[in-house]
Every structure is written in C-alpha cells, then in structure tokens.
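Suppose a colleague, Dr. K., hands you the sequence of a protein chain of 354 amino acids and asks what its three-dimensional shape might be. Before reaching for any lab equipment, you can write down a predicted structure in token form. Begin with the sequence itself:
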Amino acid sequence: MNDLPGLQTGYRIIRSEPKPHCGYCGIEGTPLYRDLSDRLYDAPGKWGFRRCPSPDCGLVWLDPAPIEEDLGIAYETYYTHSWTETPSQTSFAKRVYRYVRDGYLERRFGYDRGEPSFLRKRAGLLLYPFPARRADLDFSVMYLPARKEGRLLEVGCGGGGMLGWFSGLGWNAEGVDTDPAAVRAAQEKGLNVRLGRMEDRESLPDRFDAVTMSHLIEHVSDPRRLLRGAWQVLRPGGAVSIITPNILSLGHRRFGAAWFHLDPPRHLHLFHPSLLRRMAGEAGFREIRVSTVIRDANSLFAASRSIAATGRCTMGPPRRARMAVWSKALQLREWTELRRDPNAGEEIALVARK
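The predicted structure, expressed as tokens, is then:
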C-alpha cells in the first residue's frame, strides 16, 4: 500500500496498491512517469504510470492505483457534481450561430428537430472552413446519426449536461453514474438518471439503440467488462460511441508528464486507437470506426502548459489573449498533422455496432 499523504483533503488519504502488470495482456509494464500529484482538485497521494512494452498492446495505466474503496475521494470536488444550464442568449449573433449550428447537425447527422429545412442545411455549410468548431459539434452528438424516439443510455452522465442536450435532439435519453453527487445534480434538473453501474444491471439486455461514454472508459478498473456491458444492453444494430484521451496524441508527445489528460489519480487506463479498436472487437462489436480528433485541444494545450510551468491548472478556456491565440494555433497545427498522422488527435472517437 502507498501511505504517502501527498496533498491531503482534511486528514484523509487515498490508500493505493501497486499495479506493475498490464491489465490487458499481463506483461510487466515499463515505468513511464513517477511521483505525480493531482493537478486539478488536490486529491491526496503520489502517482505514476506504466506502459506495456508489448508491441501488440501499448496500454498505459496508473501505478500505484487507488483501491476501489477509496477511489471516490479523488472525485469529492470533481466537475461533474454540478451542471448549470446556460441561459438562452437572444442576441442576433447568437441566433444566427444557432441557426448555422442546427443546419450543420441536420446536414451531417440528420438532426432536423422535426422541421427539415433546405435553407438551414445550406447555412450549415458555413461551418465547414472551421475544423475546431466542427469537431466540437461532432462531439456534441457523439458522432451518432439522428434516431427519432431512439433509446439512448449515457454511461457516466455526470451532472447531465449532455443528457439534456440529447433529449432536446429527440432521443429518449437516460443516464447512469456511480457518483451520488453527480446523480443528484442531474435528477434535480428532471433528468432520468440512476445511481450505479451499467454492467452491474441484469435487467437491461437489448434495451437501447445507442450507448454513449464520454471520457469514462479511462476511469474504470476493468475496461473490457465495461465494453461487454455496453454490448449487452444494446439492441441488435445499436451503436456504442466512446470518447477517450489518446496516449499517442500530439499533446502527449509535446508535454509528456504535464499532459492534462494524464489526470492522476482518476485516469486508470489510457489507450491508443488500434488497442481500443481491438478491445471493442473482442467485446463483440462490428463495423468499428476509430479516428482521433482535435475537439477542445486548445483548452487542453493551455492547461498542459500551465501544468508544465506551475504544476497546477484550472479547467476551462485560456483567459489571456496571448495564450488563447497560441493554443488555437497549436490546435490548428494538430488538425494539419492529422493528414500525415491519423493518430495525432488529442482524443480517440470510436463508434461501433452490435
């Protein structure tokens, strides 16, 4: 056990256990980083990462890792505990943008909100010269085409921000999360959210048309069990959509131990595209599409630079103009790099069918 107090929350510590071997293939891992602290929420402890040396694997994982009973301490002040709905903006510019945004989503994914519009779809073309904005919008629907009254389960729904958006797009959406504070926040918004784990429930087989997991699989101790659970609850032909950090990204190559997406001690596993594809196939999925994306890379670059300079960062877009310009420029560079190296994006996007 790791009894280092690290940065303590009151008098609490997170008990930990060594994880020297790869949870996927069983090989002993090579140390990658050591003595890392929580850079966002001051959870206590010192943490490291290992990488599997097998060329057929390459998984990166946390070592030591929190024991299951203490993992919740790392989430006591986590951002998913609350979600405040942004007040509707009525300015002319905001209305124009929403019109163009809706046209893009209608053109690309079929989200016509019950009122198809040729002019709106044409207006959506205005976003095509802006790759960062398109990446944000593709993520906003988790790369899923519209399905009127389709049943959607968001696993790890947090405070319910994305769940409310999907409901507005016509999905019959519900969520599940293991964080009681996050579940309470979502339920207070009137959302259909329950506490627990998807893979622990036996009453959901063949129930959903889509399962979404945004930045979830890196937080769980058994990713393969999670994938099998998603396959179990989907109806035949249903789709799973997963977003997770990409350990091969340009940001990780540039910032190393200061890369924001390491996020110790909450990120237990970090994947690369071919490994996640293989794991999805082993879980029974087919028609697997995997890509890496630049979504929100500018904020990630600014946060990683802050970690490199100070050991700390705060979530959200950069506040200083020079930093905002620099981070946007690096995001654009990553977009151009994707043409040469498809693995350069900060996140992996996987969509597959049962």
